[in-house]
Amino acid sequence: MANQVLLKIRRQAGPSELPYWEEFAVPHQPNLNVVAALMEIQLNPVNAQGQRTSPVVWDCSCLEEVCGACSMRINGKARQACSALVDQLTQPIVLEPLSKFPVVRDLMVDRQILFEHLKRVKAWIEVDGYYDMGPGPRIQPKTQEWAYMFSRCMSCGCCTESCPQVNSRTSFMGPAAMAQAYLFNSHPLGASLVEERLAAVMGEGGIAECGKAQNCVRACPKGIPLTDALAEISRDTIKQALRVWRRS
Amino acid sequence: MNNRLVVVGGGLAGLMSCLKAVEAGWQVDVLALGPCKRSHSACAQGGINAALDTRGEGDSPWEHFDDTIYGGDFLANQTPVKGMCEAAPKIIYLFDRLGMQFNRTPEGLIDLRQLGGVKHHRVAFSGSTTGQQLLYALDEQVRRWEDQGKVRRFEGWEFLSALLDDDGCCRGITAQHLASGEIRAFPAGAVIIATGGPGIIFGKTTNSTINTGYAAGTLYRQGVTYANGEFIQIHPTAIPGADKNRLMSESVRGEGGRVWTYKDGKPWYFLEEWYPAYGNLVPRDVATRAIFKVCVDMGLGVDGQNMVYLDLTHMDPQEFERRLGGIIDIYHQFVGEDPRKVPMKIFPAVHYSMGGLWVDFDQMTNIPGLFAAGECEYQYHGANRLGGNGMLSAIYGGMVAGPKAVAYIQGTGKTGDNLPQGLAEGEIKRQQEFQAELLKRDGRENVYQLHREMGQWMNDNVTVVRYNDRLLKTEEKLQELAERYQRISIHDISPIGNQTLAFARQFGAMLDLARAITRGAYLRNESRGAHYKPDFPERDDANWLKTTLARYTPAGPEISYEPVELSYIKPRKRQYETDKGVSKVG
């Protein structure tokens, strides 16, 4: 049926419930994306078999790929649902929750661990206070442009999802946290915490767990050069290790 | 003494107020609908105003102040706006120290660009994701204090109601954990509400899906005055879409983008023709009405549809990649055409609410102990907001609210520890009963369908052009929707992640605010800023230079007015055909 969009959705009623599949057919519209298709289910919560069901639960907010909320697996690939245009996808469109995070319900997962990792690598600048103390350091445009690539990371979880090293046998924090450590280490005022960040990066779940599969850089919806950051921070940890060794 | 403050909202205003309170030695609970990085502040694109005058144009905080007051058609109280404009350069420098990735000049200084209604380069920016970058800078700092135990984040929690004691003072809030359904109280000596705008009332807008206005609508019902609700900004340039109208930043015009359509077979740059002094950089309300006139009244939209061109194709592709990258990608991704090669097709869309919770100069609402900052309050933009002032007002409002809330608690001695017996328990019970009642409704109406109808009506009748007969019909429609709302069915009884239940709750508050907005618009028989009535086409200072105040009653909004504070700049006619000039200092 050309005027309908077929969706096959992996659903789960709660964190400890068993998953099941449910199919839906929603009306087609030009430029329809996956979020808009899910909204159609809210308007008419009936499955493809014509049975009344509960509306599908998923996370979303900005719908313009800047907030990072609506990550899910779409036809097997982790990406943002808002920018997944229906006309560019094979049907039935298979929607699944991200697999590397605990399911809350249906397509909604708990990604709090991403923010815990940002805490572990101290992804911030230690300023003295939040009042006027004059301008910050001058920064060359080229330096800013490079840093801006990394500062656009929206913690969507797609790189974590795609990384083979993030699994139940390792504690790898994943590419995003490593890249943020690199970003803050590169900033002139971020330098005060370089050694602490590198210690975290060299510790458990750190850069040593990276298997260089390079999936992350392909999965990132924002095109952040994650593998460059991983290589740089890896090199920095070696220098740091040497420094510590010389001191001892 | 319990040194704890509650901040509701994880965007720029909420996080800034949190940091200022932490700096004052206080502990803060921050509640947000989701991870703070996903707040709607992330969607702000163009930049943030500050009269840094690094281009030798003679810009100054006074010029910024005058542009803001003039751009807002003299409806904003002047003292807080003046404070904001004076603080702006310091705010930019603070973010500079936080590691904010502002675009730079070759010398390494913060680069500036121009936005509408302004003759100076005054906008600091970070590509076209300035809001995202400002938000992340604050989010990182809050994480730093979270790591040290000064801040507790409750992400995925929604504000339900304020706890009000017998003196009518705010003593905390109730909130719900959306994943588990748990409802609990957060007692505190003061609460700062920073929950953003109510755009979703208008259906498809540039806003995030979380911008329902639920918190503001609930507080309005609890007795907070809602001010200037009728002033809704319609952004001239958005990409029409099935699920939302995506913002196409004003910075496109700031960087040289031109707006046109075909007339007599030739490109017609109507903004440049009609407004020679400002051209494509007229303020948003002016540009929106012009595009509306061209499409709706003259029938000259592109392909006969409600769209005009926003054209960048004459620009150096590398330069605008550097300065506008993010939004060019958005257009490319969602429309499938490359703006470097083909002009973009755009149309106005609801974008921002100038109105909001009434606050005093300390950011406190009429309920003692309840503060508000950011788009959810009304204070900084008068009848129309200038581009680049939205993020500034959110940050500045947060900077004021944090320390003022702390000072308030110190002055009253009311804290989260000494709540009246039964206050929190009673309110939790009331919320639980209300939700149980919502779940029991088993009529034939679908709340998402009702919302779609409300959005359509509000968009058609309470936006760019307003007529009194249509506003009255809209009020009738809203009452009809309120009746049908009693006959909804949730289709979902699970406590876990029940989004339909949450939306049904939010919808009730949206209806209340929609009525306040519509009534304010109906009564204001003049045209000022974003509020335009063809039957009353002029600004009428003799009768309407006053702030609208809406109070909730079960029968509908009760409207009164208060005078605008005009301590510095005398009202003058607002027009953009010619250079606006600037009022004398002091």
Sheet with the most strands, sense and barrel status of chain A: 5 strands, mixed
The second-level CATH architecture of the domain at 4-45 and 148-231 and 354-423 in chain B is 3-Layer(bba) Sandwich
What's the gyration radius of chain B in Å? 23 Å
State the helical fraction of chain A.
25-40%
Which spans of chain B have pLDDT < 50 for at least 5 consecutive residues? Answer: none
Strand content of chain A: 5-15%
CATH superfamily of the largest domain in chain A: Alpha-helical ferredoxin
Query: What is the subunit organization of this protein?
Result: heterodimer
* SS elements, strand count of chain B: 21
The rough form of chain A would be described as: elongated
The geometry of chain B reads as globular
| Overall pLDDT confidence of chain A | 96
Tally of alpha and pi helices of chain B: 15
For the secondary structure, the number of strands of chain A is 7
Structural class of chain B: alpha+beta
Radius of gyration of chain A: 21 Å
Strand arrangement across the biggest beta sheet of chain A: 2-1-5-3-4
According to CATH, the fold-level topology of the domain at 4-45 and 148-231 and 354-423 in chain B is FAD/NAD(P)-binding domain
What fraction strand of chain B? 15-25%
Find the structural class of chain A using helix and strand composition: alpha+beta
Count up the helices of chain A: 8
Write out key terms for the chains shown:
heterodimer; A: 248 residues; alpha+beta; Ubiquitin-like (UB roll); Fumarate Reductase Iron-sulfur Protein, Chain B, domain 2; 2 domains; five-stranded mixed beta sheet; two-stranded antiparallel ribbon; 8 helices; 7 strands; elongated; B: 586 residues; FAD/NAD(P)-binding domain; Flavocytochrome C3, Chain A, domain 1; six-stranded antiparallel beta sheet; five-stranded parallel beta sheet; 15 helices; 21 strands
